[in-house]
Write a structure and sequence with these properties.
Elements (H helix, E strand, L loop, with lengths): L1 H42 L8 E4 L4 E7 L5 E7 L4 E8 L4 E6 L4 E7 L6 E8 L6 E10 L5 E9 L4 E12 L2 E9 L4 E9 L24 H9 L4 E10 L2 E15 L2 E11 L4 E10 L1
Amino acid sequence: MKGSWELDLKEYKMKKKLCYLVLATVLTAMAISCQKDRLAIQSFKPKYLLKSMEWPALGQTATFSYNGNSTVRSVDYKTASTLTIRNYSYGAVGLTSISSSQSLAASTFQYEATTGLVAKMNRVINDGPTPRISQVLDFGYNAFSHLTSMRFFEVNAVGSNLNATTTYTYVSTLFSELLTIDRNGNKRLIRIDGYSDEVSFDPLWFLENEVTSLSPLYNYPVLKHLASRAKLPASFKVYRLENGQELLEKTYAITYTISNQKLLRQLSKITDHGTSITTDLEVIYHY
């Protein structure tokens, strides 16, 4: 009886040690995968340097200038009568600020100390003796460095007020739904139905220098994530949620012309279901 008991105890200890070993292996693999995913997003660079973008219907062009390390230094936006220069600054982790020659406002970026992921985008107004923050986008992530939330704060002399919160849902590693709830409980949903073929791009080609209704989709962390996966949204719809119903507000259908992951042309068809007006917008990319 004693020998059998000792064998059972020994077998139990071996199984316990094996379980710990398997668990440690799984956790190590998860940590390595998470680190690789994070590094892929941080170190991503496009295959092609864009010279300019052209909006034929608007009579507008955007001409790119680069730093020695191929990061965007500035973009000149020109129409027949105007010139706006957008400037980009960088630090050790990445992009730190975007400013415009025609605006007192600028965007600054803060990063998480341990992961290097984008933590905040601040809208800074230079209209007084010292710059002041007027808006903040605060980004949250899960253990796999995937964006899970974006909180939009408005800042005044009294303090900061939470204006809206967006939560992100994924299918595999791509965004599928973005749900935004504002301070009054109003809900809007962006549902992404499809993505482009593989395409190499710089997030700055699509990043706006202000907070808009599409900021939940076209913000810096989302665009960095999509760039690392060589995908752009090709079809998405915007809904207003009321009384458990989804009320369709806008439809975006975007056709990309891509050759060897080089983006050559983009045709966006935007339908406003409230007014039944459809707008077409073409963008041509030059290298």
